[in-house]
Amino acid sequence: MASEVAAMAVRFVGEYVRAWDLAVAAAVLFVFSAVRNRLSGPPGAPMLWPVFGILPSLFANFDEIHDWGTAALARAGGTFPYRGMWGGGSSGVITSVPANVEHVLKNNFENYPKGPYYRERFVELLGDGIFNADGDAWRAQRRAATTEMHSARFLEFSAGTIGDLVRRKLVPLLDALSARGDAVDLQDVLLRFTFDNICAAAFGIDAGCLADGLPDVPFARAFERATELSLERFVTPPFVWKAKRALGVGSERALVEATRAVREFAERTVAERRKIGTLDGRRDLLSRLLSSPPADFPEGYSDEFLRDFCISFILAGRDTSSVALAWFFWLLASHPDVESRVLADVAASGNASSMDYLHAALTESMRLYPPVPADFKEALEDDVLPDGTAVRAQQRVIYYTYAMGRDKTLWGPDCLEFRPERWLNKSGAFAGGAESPYKYVVFNAGPRLCVGKRFAYTQMKAVAAAVLARFRVEVLPGQEAAIKPKLNTTLYMKRGLMVRFARREQGHEPGHAVPTAGGGRLTWECSSTAAVEDSKNKLVQVTRSVEGLMKT
Length: 552
Ligand code: HEM
Description:
Helix content is 55%, strand content 8%. With 552 residues, it is an alpha+beta fold. Helix 9 (186-203) packs antiparallel against helix 14. The protein is globular. The structure holds protoporphyrin IX containing FE. Protoporphyrin IX containing FE binds at residues 130-131, 142, 145, 198, 313, 316-317, 320-321, 324, 371-372, 375, 442-444, 448, 450-452, 455-456.
């Protein structure tokens, strides 16, 4: 009997159901499910498609992804749910609401660790390093990092590494480029600078990226490759990259090779440093950790701890400030009035703790182009955000720093304008400390606030001051349309920034007026001998200020 019914059903399907009918039914189901998804999210939120989730919208807006995300958040009132492809295990909410960010990063901190989703994608490269750790492992490193990095000894040492690198490597390189009239990718030069700088500060070594001829440095290349390949896991369905990892093929094999090179380098450095009898004269992070273990590590830190610690530091400090500087120079090129005020500030100031206008200009630049455009945390348990959005356990809350920096409701109708003055008080002092860190979340906030924030500002101010005092940065024409962010966890410029450097002494001055701190005006225009002399004197003054900055 049952077999007769089955045979009849097969005959019926064969006679009356065509492939076309099946396609129409599937399409109706698809549209029905899509409309249901659309209606269940906040109005204006991106469509969550059956099977593909948010991916079709992402692909459709790939080229302008951050501006599209910013507009979508504005339409949706600041928060919307997202879902990746079926089987990808990625879902949660995206938000630009400061109260939600404060809840995740501070008020309910224990419920929002980095979590296993992040950890398993970075574990080969970072191991248990601070960037990848939660709970006690994170706390131990955080304590070690803040104790050392906020010590007067490290502040002095790291400022020394910055000044040294600027004087001995960066300025001579730019001098040579300007003498030859060569164009160069400024972003690449800055990335090399910060890589060398973080290696000097963390390991006490010269990575050599800024050496003559800008050589290919195997350790830097392996590091970059390992980071890129780890990030690839975030956009690849887990069953794909996990299968490749199990088989040891393709990108997963390349990742193993790149991370091995990075780890071996770090292990060798740790081993060599251990061999040195006394580390009293060395002030890099690694030497400090080796020579002064805290009470809770009476035996001293293990080799693995030190290796992972240093690798995390390089990851954290290697490209964020260089990317911030690249966007800063790009913004200055189209805002000569701001450049003039920065120059006046540099000329009038003597050390890193001053230069308030430059500090404000960098802060403002990172509001528009945050080096880490978005970040996320993973919920341990079900929760409700302050704006009423529900978050289920294991879902992620993505806080979209890029969108927050361009939110009219947070920064006013001129939120898209580059206006450093918004960070200054009436007497021209930097007043950014009064802003909520959950509104300007560029350096993260709460217990996991960036440990390198102070270092980063000193570094960026030193580079900006030294470069601007000596050179006019000419952005090569015709790049405007190509200056876009790359889709990455760091906001690299997609194709870099091609520039030429013109020595200010060579009379390449822009000729625009430079207001001084006291309200007077000096110009760089060289129209008479007296004016040339005056300009030279001002340049000497600027150069001295930079030297002063280096000494702090
Ligand atoms: C403009 C430059 C920088 C920006 C915008 C920046 C931004 C950030 C952000 C957003 C985080 C949070 C990451 C997360 O938890 O997912 C972070 C963490 C961190 N940053 Fe920075 N950073 C900068 C420079 C640096 C530098 C130069 C260093 C090292 C010298 C550094 C060291 C760290 C460390 C160690 C952490 C981990 C803190 C923790 O998890 O407790 N950063 N930074």
